[in-house]
User: What shape does this take?
Amino acid sequence: MRLETDLKLGFKEVMIRPKRSTLKTRAQVALDRTFTFLHSGREWSGVPVIASNMDTVGTFDVADVLARFDMMTAIHKHYGEEDWTRFLAGRGEGIYQRIMVSTGIAEQDLVRLNRILSAHPDLQFICLDVANGYVEVFVDCLRRVRESYPEKTIVAGNVVTGEMVEELLLSGADIVKVGIGSGSVCITRVKAGVGYPQLSAVIECADAAHGLGGRIISDGGCVSAGDVAKAFGGGADFVMLGGMFAGHDESGGELLEREGQHYKLFYGMSSSTAMEMHSGGVADYRASEGKTVEVPYRGPIAETVKDILGGVRSACTYVGASALRELTKRTTFIRVLEQNNPVFA
Ligand code: 5GP
Assistant: This one.
């Protein structure tokens, strides 16, 4: 046994310190970024916020709206080949910069991935996603997917430590997805006792990735637009959101009504709800590691998107960053024991 006594931090343990700024208005802040990816060599430009590949969030309807804001959607893995064909027919070239095809590493997942990519060779992004990115079979699978698709941009995860970020980048990932246990409907920390506070994970993993020319996504744990700003401030190249995008018109799940209030169902991809829906139940040897919750209905997702982007612009203005690219360089985090004023909470 070993004990590390360094305190690791989540978003709620810090604030971004304001700095002198010459910016006159937050409208001056450019949120788009341009990256050239390590292995695929492809260039990408856009606003680096991604809707999570959960079946209640990473829907085609969400993708259509987020694309209007130059943002991305990791489309969940439960759409079939015909659904993809229906979605892509009639949409312009631009959509390929705004969507990722998600897949697990089981044989049937990879068969499905190959079918979709053969039918739609213009798709550029593959999101190879497992709950635990530390297992050897995952790295082997990543190597095989890289060999089969040298020109695709591959996202791989999830991990939370620098050495594993390096391993994934050296095994073919362009972008590593970072986050274990931080998600809003995740109970891994409770069920398994495993995890890593999200901000520290981002800071440490960004450092490892950038040293090799790779990129990272901060995945999970954002509760507010301020947290999204903190993730970027910590060095995340992209931020992925699940819970903050749940409960909208375009999110998956049916609209429920109880006592005049409307709700939408939102659940973790390892929850018993998801496992019953997609895998015929929770297998005997495993525990459900996700929650099922009813989210109050929140209307069109575009309003939430504007709110989040407004918050990130505001953060940039407070530290004098005229572009999102500069935010991390201009960020000084201060450790705190308080966040918002709770009088009207
Ligand atoms: P959120 O933005 O809601 O805080 O976090 C979203 C992320 O939570 C997802 O992108 C995914 O990485 C993670 N996640 C989704 N479902 C589950 C689950 O059932 N269990 C766990 N451990 N993590 C989940």
